[in-house]
Task: inverse folding
């Protein structure tokens, strides 16, 4: 399976940045008018995309041929009828990442790729076990983060509407809205209900922020990567180059609460840190394996410590897994989210709607399947609830000595730098 720069997504959530959707090729050729007049054809198109591309040839133990008979035997008078049937059909796969997007949802997805969206700045997904709608991470600097919503919070109500049995698309639709309007979010955290009234805003997405920080063994380059969006690799390249000019002694790469994004973005960024070695392998349902490797174009060979947590998902896990397996970086924090699946985003034949379909699994360089398992850091440091809330209430402390996980990362980095300078010294993890 060749990895393309278009349409391949490994974000953990439905509300996720993606590349601009690609057209389906080789399935249907009728014009848009045909699909508008024949909503049943749209249902069949989605069925065929799954039939040809879905990662699991057993379709998660679903009789996919029988599903086609069931849904094509129905009468559809409007596209809305078809949309509803498509959602029902895809839900039978029990794969939260394979989903249908109506025109409004699909347009929103494309708007996000421009680096701007309207909402509260939150990533959500159904919990793998409970199916409850769960916060993966609030985006840094957004209304959700400012309000105090945290990773792992369970959303029980949106505007007083229960989320029990609600699909992810409906939840996203209720949370999003025009800038300046408010949404009421009810959260379950540590068995306690909490209410958050959050004002929606227009959110500009800048995936990288960085700074030069003084430290005992020379300057430290601190880089925080929030998302693997289309412009993440160029911003990361600029950050590393600028910090190299300042002659930093080492780096702290902060991937905490980074829910993922584009597959090619994670590969390009890994190549900036790795001079050689495998970055990731992907395997489709036919067993076709594709390897992505470093290209001898690393921008730095300085020591690097990577901060991760339960909100570090997907593309974050590819990058951190590549650095860990190649012994290029030391991971500090808590176990990552655990999403080892790749989606392809496609536009559909009506010219308005789209879908995301899981097409492959990915593995770390050492062959680890991290789906549902996550990646365990080399140095584990769990924040207390009080410490988490303190950082949420004052985001300026993130990535500073007031951040306990940053403090630990700096301590580990200091030992790494000392070990590099003294051949007889041993790096301590």
Result:
């Amino acid at each position: 399976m060749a990895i393309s720069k278009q349409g391949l997504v490994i974000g953990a959530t439905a509300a996720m940045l993606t590349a601009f959707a690609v057209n389906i090729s080789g399935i249907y050729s009728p014009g848009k008018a045909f699909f508008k007049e024949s909503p049943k054809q749209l249902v069949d198109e989605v069925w065929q995309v799954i039939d040809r591309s879905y990662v699991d040839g057993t379709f998660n133990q679903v009789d996919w041929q029988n599903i086609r008979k069931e849904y094509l035997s129905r009468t559809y008078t409007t596209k809305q009828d078809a949309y509803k049937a498509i959602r029902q059909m895809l839900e039978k796969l029990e794969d939260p990442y394979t989903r249908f997007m109506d025109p409004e949802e699909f347009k929103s997805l494309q708007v996000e790729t421009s680096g701007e969206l309207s909402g509260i700045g939150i990533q959500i997904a159904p919990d793998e076990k409970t199916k409850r709608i769960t916060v993966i991470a609030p985006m840094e600097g957004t209304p959700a983060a400012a309000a105090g919503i945290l990773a792992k919070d369970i959303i029980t109500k949106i505007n007083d509407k229960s989320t029990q049995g609600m699909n992810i698309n409906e939840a996203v639709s209720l949370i999003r809205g025009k800038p300046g309007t408010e949404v009421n979010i009810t959260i379950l955290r540590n068995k306690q209900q909490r209410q958050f009234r959050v004002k929606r805003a227009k959110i500009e997405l800048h995936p990288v922020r960085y700074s030069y920080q003084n430290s005992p063994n020379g300057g430290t380059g601190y880089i925080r990567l929030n998302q693997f969006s289309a412009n993440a690799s160029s911003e990361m390249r600029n950050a590393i180059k600028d910090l190299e000019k300042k002659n930093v002694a080492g780096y702290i790469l902060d991937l905490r609460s980074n829910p993922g994004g584009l597959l090619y973005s994670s590969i390009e960024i890994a190549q900036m840190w790795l001079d050689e070695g495998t970055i990731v392998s992907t395997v489709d349902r036919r067993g076709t394996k594709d390897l992505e490797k470093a290209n001898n174009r690393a921008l730095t060979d300085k020591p690097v410590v990577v901060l991760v947590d339960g909100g570090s998902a997907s593309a974050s896990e590819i990058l951190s897994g590549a650095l860990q397996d190649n012994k290029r970086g030391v991971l500090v924090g808590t176990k990552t989210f655990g999403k080892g699946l790749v989606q392809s985003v496609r536009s559909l034949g009506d010219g308005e709607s789209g879908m995301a379909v899981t097409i492959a699994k990915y593995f770390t360089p050492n062959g680890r399947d991290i789906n549902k398992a996550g990646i365990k850091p080399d140095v584990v440091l769990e924040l207390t609830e009080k410490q988490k809330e303190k950082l949420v209430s004052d985001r300026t402390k993130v990535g500073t000595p007031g951040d306990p996980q940053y403090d630990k990362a700096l301590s580990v980095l200091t030992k790494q730098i000392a070990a590099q300078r003294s051949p007889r010294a041993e790096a301590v993890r």
The chain has twelve helices and 21 strands. Residues 118-204 form a domain with the Pdz3 Domain fold (CATH 2.30.42.10). Confidence is low (pLDDT under 50) at residues 1-6, 12-34, 425-429.
